[in-house]
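Lecture 7, part 2: worked example. A protein chain together with zinc ion.
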Amino acid sequence: MTARRRALAPRPRAASGALPRAALAVAWCGFGACVDPVAPQPLASAASEPPASEAGAVSGAPVLRVLGTAQDGGLPHAGCACDSCSAALVDPARARRVSSLAVVAGGRAWLIDATPDLREQLRLLRPARGVPGVDRRPVEGVFLTHAHLGHYTGLAFFGYEAIHTRELPVWGTPSMAAFLRANAPWSRLVEIGNIRLHELPPGAGVELDAGVSVTALGVPHRDELSDTVGFLIRGPRTRVLYVPDTDSWNAWDPPLVARLSGVDVAILDGTFFAADELPGRDVSEIGHPLMRESMELLEPLVSAGRLAVYFTHLNHSNPALDPHGPQRRAIESRGFRVLAEDQRIPL
Ligand SMILES: [Zn+2]
Ligand SMILES: [Zn+2]
Ligand SMILES: [Zn+2]
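Predicted complex, written out as structure tokens:
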């Protein structure tokens, strides 16, 4: 793959949901790299190879497809029979796959994160691709947020024992890439050429298609194996900030509200609703922002119609999983939403 560098052309803002650019002129700091969130940034291009196949390919205007919305352990959660997990076992409509998105543009698709539910998510993405046998290029590439169970272990399905892809582009921070290169079984994917790693430091971006790009944003999170990023996904009409996994917003510098400058849609960490939902544990010590706190913080932007907020990465303990429960009603009455499986967000 060539590494053509391009400047991202300025594009008209969405008619609604946009923040005034001058209001919050701050830098996106990726714990080292800082860039203006709105100014055009140099981007590496991923558009140098033709689509693997046009047969049955996704087509039409650029769109974000939601492939999963659960915390790393999924719903039902491994080894659990709580009310939410039991409901999901009885009613498949209550089940949720592990958090993941696909950016679909120009008849091609890129994954954001490779989850343990990757097999099902690939089927969801391209159920009628029409390739005989195993499609060895099921997506154009993968962007990774970090090295926790739900976000990268699906890479194993691209390996020799399964799809056996050839030089599938995988973008991660230098720290994430170093972890994959140095540790089996991920190092094996690199050594035999199933994947090709591309380092994407916080602040750097990749242009996927005309007017569609993905830029990494450094995020504070438990960094045992790698650091962590979220992604700013820019489309011709809409800018989406995706942060499925983060420490409390108090740990953000600059603060979240400043980083939402120019963003139309925020898809944010909704792991826990409130501090008391895990018996015997204080979830605030686990480090995620609580939905209640996120709503307090962002309600002025949401109620003013300047930002749409969806929660994702819900833990099985989160009472907002119940579509008829009081917590879900409280979220929706304040103008927020829980991200739905297979939801589509036009870009
Ligand atoms: Zn996670
Ligand atoms: Zn459970
Ligand atoms: Zn994590």
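Residues 291-303 form the longest helix (13 residues). The radius of gyration is 19 Å. Keep this in mind for problem set question 3.
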